[in-house]
Amino acid sequence: MSKPKVLMIITLDTKAVEAKFVRETLEANGVEVVHLDASIRSEVDDQVEIPPAEVAAAAGKTLQEVRDLKHEGKCQGVMIEGAVKCAQALHAKTPISGIIGVGGSMGTALGSVVMQSFPYGMPKVLVSTMASGFTRPFVGAKDIVMFNPVCDIAGLNSITRDVFSNAAIATAAMAKAYSPVRVEPKPLIAMGTLSTIDRCTVRVRKALEQQGYEVMVFHTLGTGGMALDQLVAERDVAAVVDTSLVEHNDFLNNGLCSAGPDRSKAALAKGIPVIFAPGNADFMVAGPIDAAKQQFPGKRYHMHNHALTAVRAEAEELHKLARHLGGLIAEAKGPVSFFIPLKGFSHHDSPEGHLHDPSLCPVFAAAMRAELPASVEVREFECHINDEAFADAIVEKVLQSTRALA
């Protein structure tokens, strides 16, 4: 039986000692190593499985042409492109079971882009000097594990030796257990939430699970929505229940939880049923209360905790949100429904909350109706988003939509 293959991404021009140690540890733990080396600074050992010249060639350049760019960002851009192509070509020819990378900010950037091009579930481990806090640009929405080397990656010492060893052993163990074959007998539903609409989404999840569905719920604080969209792009998803729209609001208003301009596009482009609801559309997310007041002067605020403040979305923001969503949904290739509760969009927007304004839900409903194509089913409910009747209506619609396509 052949050993599982692990792709190791370490540049030999600056980290030869570390690469040798990690490779030996991986091999001692029962995996075959394929070393991808994206070095550009100097000549290196050309015995690695994927040498720098091959990486550059995959991006349409010679290694000397890359060096002649004389700009670290441009050089790295070429090598990242080539590294992704080389890694994917390797995987297509002889499938890999895991990836490990070691680097500073540059090595982390390259390794993480390669890792993000692989599916959820495949082991992905980065030993990175960026791991002690500056992780979002590298982890993104993928299941990447980061180890903090504590010291700089500059040779081996009693701390880094342990960190590299632990990371390599963990990668080998995960690779040996990894199976790319996934059995998904249950239809899959993707759904977004925050704690402010938990009563709705928990009831929806439990009801759908009882009906034989697998429900994946994503925490919509930016990367959660990105992960939801990536899941939809990668997997066979039966329907999306997009019940938390705070990431759209934050994209439009520079809040903390933006998921970017492409949020929700994956499901709309794929043509699967999408049920929207304006959960959490009543606020934007800002930082500490003093910073929130500076960023959004003259608004209504609720201090969620010392680090986060919910800022009330007024009619202006709700109209902007409706225009944005209408533009996205106009490009939909499949059935879309939009369910609107007229008595509140989150716990904050409820009689027990601190940002309740019953006059604004009808404003959003009218704006949404004006922006949506005639093909979209729009339903208004005389209830709050967290009321059982609203959750039950979503469940009924999911069952109707997915069974119609079965």
Mean pLDDT value: 93
Helix share of residues?
40-55%
Distance between the termini: 39 Å
| Helix/sheet category | alpha/beta
How many E strands?
Answer: 14
Q: Helical region count?
A: 15
Based on CA inertia axes, which overall geometry fits? elongated
Strand order of the biggest β-sheet: 7-6-8-9-13-14
Question: What order do the helices and strands come in, and which of them pair?
Answer:
Layout: E1 5-9, H1 12-28, E2 32-36, H2 52-58, H3 63-68, H4 72-93, E3 98-103, H5 105-116, E4 124-128, H6 136-139, E5 145-147, H7 160-177, E6 188-193, H8 198-210, E7 214-219, H9 223-234, E8 237-244, H10 246-253, H11 265-270, E9 274-279, E10 283-286, H12 289-295, E11 301-303, E12 309-312, H13 315-329, E13 336-341, H14 360-371, E14 377-381, H15 388-405
Parallel strand pairs: 1-2, 1-3, 3-4, 4-5, 6-7, 6-8, 8-9, 9-13, 13-14
Antiparallel strand pairs: 10-12, 11-12
Structural description of this entry:
The protein is an alpha/beta fold. It is 44% helix and 18% strand. It has 15 helices and 14 strands. The strands form 3 sheets. Strands 7-6-8-9-13-14 form a 6-stranded parallel sheet, with helices on both faces. A 5-stranded parallel sheet has the order 2-1-3-4-5, with helices on both faces. A 3-stranded antiparallel sheet has the order 10-12-11. It is elongated.
Give a nutshell description of this structure.
The protein has 406 residues and is α/β, with parallel strands linked by helices. It is built from 15 helices and 14 strands. The protein is 44% helix and 18% strand.
